[in-house]
């Protein structure tokens, strides 16, 4: 299975800046990349991503989805709406949602369910905070977070993407070492293996200060199946260089 590189633009961009960035990324990918590539853009730009990327090999998605199906939920965006705009993916449970919007494991699990039901692949984020890391609770935390989703989606577990994003590595420049990341990915893989016979096809991405300089070593680890890239996905040359660091199948 190809590795998967996903850009998480977070709350960045404008119509003009996005057009420039996507044109540069598509141009840079003119020779078929060895990996799958996607960008998760702010909701208002989904239509733009759909228009600019439909005839390219780059997929697009959202950064969040409502846990509700439809109705009186002001400000929310449903999974069916994401599907309407051609989203292949949506991030769920990003640590910034957990931290600033009080999202708990059970909400994240319902969001993953909603996405799957609409034919959108959830990229389920798990990761420990610095305090949890220092207290030696990494394994406990990520297993708890993933377990809520596995429990909710059942036999569809093989359809999800998982992203391990240590909170202390996000936007800080402090990347997990390849060995640290691989060790957590192996724990997550074992957990998936206990849940589905098709765990090997679940891609487990690493995220947290991944950049052009450190991507290759991370992406060489056996259980690192790609990356979820924040800051470095906003610069075409950096994003392309990370894509070029992927293992060839
Ligand atoms: P950075 O790559 O900016 O550290 O962000 C990682 C992230 O949160 C991706 O979802």
Task: Sum this structure up briefly.
The chain is an alpha/beta fold. The protein contains ten helices and eight strands. An eight-stranded parallel beta barrel has the order 1-2-3-4-5-6-7-8, surrounded by five helices.
Please write out the topology:
Blueprint: E1 4-8, H1 15-28, E2 36-40, H2 46-53, E3 58-62, H3 79-84, E4 89-92, H4 95-100, H5 105-117, E5 121-126, H6 130-134, H7 138-153, E6 161-164, H8 178-195, E7 204-207, H9 215-219, E8 226-229, H10 236-244
Parallel strand pairs: 1-2, 1-8, 2-3, 3-4, 4-5, 5-6, 6-7, 7-8
Helix pairs in contact: 1-2, 1-10, 5-7, 7-8
The chain binds 1,3-dihydroxyacetonephosphate.
Question: What descriptive keywords fit this protein?
Answer:
single chain; 249 residues; alpha/beta; TIM Barrel; 8-stranded parallel beta barrel; 40% helix; globular; binds 1,3-dihydroxyacetonephosphate
Which architecture does the CATH hierarchy give at level 2?
Alpha-Beta Barrel
Calculate Rg over CA atoms. Answer: 17 Å
Please state the structural category.
alpha/beta
State the helicity in percent bands: 40-55%
Q: Kindly state the mean pLDDT as a whole number?
A: 96
CATH class wording: Alpha Beta
Unreliable residue stretches = none
Task: Bin the strand percentage.
Answer: 5-15%
Kindly state the number of beta strands: 8
Distance between the first and last residues' Cα = 7 Å
Give, in spatial order, the strands making up the sheet with the most strands. 1-2-3-4-5-6-7-8
> Which ligands occur here?
1,3-dihydroxyacetonephosphate
What's the story with the biggest beta sheet?
Answer: 8 strands, parallel, barrel
